[in-house]
Amino acid sequence: MSAPTRPEPAATGRRTPVSTRAVVGVGLLVTLLLAGVLSFYASSHPDGLSAVAARLGFDTTARESVTAGSPLAGYRVADIGDARLSGGLAGLLGVVVVGAVMAGLVLLLRRRPASGGRTAPGAPSAPSTDPDA
Questions:
Q1: Which of 99, 68, 73 is nearest to 86 (CA)?
Q2: Which residue in 97, 95, 84 sits closest to 42, CA to CA?
Q3: R_g (Cα) of the chain, nearest Å
Q4: In this structure, what is the dihedral angle of CA atoms 4, 7, 12, 15, given to the nearest 10 degrees?
């Protein structure tokens, strides 16, 4: 007599769980793809603030930004001759910088157990794995 086999997940209607790493990885790839490719097609027209300033007549009072000489000024990477490539790289670098800041904040602000293995006041406690408890 053979041992009973487990039914396939599709047969039971259950989904196989997707790991958090897979979701984050796919999300990161899609974000980088969109930032790199769509920034090639960014509008060459002035942004909304500049357009309103021109329409209302105070665009001539604008001063140069203190970051105007920076490597990513004007949504472009300095010293890259091709405008599309320069804009795409600026988009990719923007995603990387924002992602690094976000990851740093997550690591800094995540909940950690207090010293002695106890949870912080008000934090939910983990269920006990002790069978005698």
A1: 73
A2: 84
A3: 26
A4: 140
What pTM value is reported for the model?
Answer: 0.58
For the record, the structure tokens of 109 come out as 């602000």
Q: What is the pLDDT of residues 3-24, one digit of tens each?
A: 666 656 555 667 888 898 999 8
Does 133 score more than 70 pLDDT?
Answer: no
How many residues belong to the chain?
133
For the chain, give every domain's residue range: 21-42+68-108
Both tokens assigned to 93: 């670098």
Number of other CB atoms surrounding residue 83 within 10 Å = 12
- The answer to whether residue 128 scores a pLDDT higher than 70 is no
